[in-house]
Amino acid sequence: MLLYNKRAIKIIRKSLKLTQQEMGNLLGVSRACFVTYENGRSKGKRNFFFERMLTEFGIDLRQPEDLRRIVFTDTSKIAQPVYQYLSELEIEEE
């Protein structure tokens, strides 16, 4: 089953030094909508959110639930130091 690790979203946002509002704006959703994804409570269309993360940041969140790494499809979409930090990180569920 493909799920996303909700902690990854918050870690990505904070690594990019973005507020929830700024991240929502970049992804084309409201702050309130973004917060539901970040908190793992979204009942909306996850495919849209996943596609926007892929397009904006080159990050594929559609991964097996037990994968504890952030998967990049395009490393040129974020700053190299942020990529390096995120790519080496092991993410645990809360």
Automatic annotation (TrEMBL):
SUPFAM superfamilies: lambda repressor-like DNA-binding domains (SSF47413). Residues 9-32 form the HTH cro/C1-type domain. GO terms for molecular function: DNA binding. This is HTH cro/C1-type domain-containing protein. It comes from Chitinophaga ginsengisegetis.
